[in-house]
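Quick note —
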Amino acid sequence: MIKRIKNIVNRYNNSIQIKLMVAFLLTTLLIMFMNVLMYVNTNRMLESLDEVYTENINLNEISDTLDNINISLTDYLNTRSSSSMENYYKYVQDYTHLTESLHGDISSNELLLMERDIKKMSESYVELTNYALDGKRGGNIEKYKVRYQESCTVYKYLKSMIIELNNERFRRNALIYQEQSSNIRALELMNIISIFIIGVMNVITIVILTNSITKPLIRLAVAAGIVSEGNLNIDTVPIESEDEIGVVTKAFNQMVENIRRYIERLRENMDTERKHKEKELLMESHLKDAKLKYLQAQINPHFLFNTLNAGAQLAMMEGADRTYTYVQRVADFFRYNIKKDQDEVTLAEEISLVDTYIYILNVRFAGDIHFTKEIDESLLNVKLPGMTLQPIVENSVNYGIRNIDWQGEIKLKVYRQDDTVCISIKDNGIGISKEKLEKILSGKYHADEGLTDSNGVGLDNVINRLNLYFGENDVIDIISEGENKGTETIIYVQNTVS
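Predicted structure written out below.
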């Protein structure tokens, strides 16, 4: 069990699916990491740029608020407007809040010292403006005028210091901004280089991975193409991995080897079978001749007895001439059957035998059989096995028209159809069922050999002899459309007569 689990783990470790997932996951994580790093660094640079001019903005606000204090104070001193006083207090509060952010300690930094001076001077300026406002409200003209003049002097000096500090801050911030801009451009360049490197690494990874997959597949496809053309003399396809492609390659190599062994065994068997086949063909040739002679020799003695008995009865009832003719016909009939050396006859001879047979039957049964012929005289020299047509006519009499309530008719027709000679024997008797017809054509049905009026050569005998003689299995066809619709037997002979 443990070994099986290890095999499963190793199989998945070597799986193409796992390789693809790991490759794409690593590249995706690397790209995500670079994007996050670029985002963090860019935001940090942007924040630094935002902070560069923050101090200038604060100094501008301080300067604007200082102007508003001076304007609202002047307006109140001139008009004593309550709105001017409210504006004054509001601006003073804003100004005090803004100046609190300025550096207030002693420092060696010149800019920080300027901030400290502005902060201290701003406190003095606010005190002077408050004194001037209080003097105006108290009606002390001399006091608010003096304080107002002093505040104006401080205002001008304070304003110039703020402007100077702001300009100095701006110059230094401009240098910082340039430095930060250079850093941002360097970061952009580094990001572009990093993305390029990652892209190149991804391409290399994809090329290596796809090459490791497609190269074995191409070799396998080439080998399969060679095998499909019937060439099994190829080298074994090398197995470079234990993944799915390696498994398929191993199976392909094993398949080719098995086919080679199978073909080798097949060749050996074919040589052996060919030798046996030659012996079988020789034996079959002798057996075919023996079967032809044996099947033609199957004559039922009951038929001979019945026909001779009928001749004796006729001799008693009528004159000698008719008796002579009848007996002569009977003698001709049996003389045809006992020709041991006559395997092949002409169609004319077979038709003559049928005429003799119909004559004998009509004598026996008082002319109950109505027999007609429609024959192409140019086809009478066609060759076929002896005793072929008479058993078929006999079958039509015994199993077709013997016990029907209407006039029995049998028609013999010989005609040409393209290059085939067709010999048709058709009756209007009781017909043959579909199941029985299938058995006759397949050779599974055998007539009753105990039937006393038969000459012993059944329809199955005729079918077998025709198949043996012509070497085909579709020489004869039997057609019956249903009950009381008669039966037609057609023999197809390839025309060899010009």
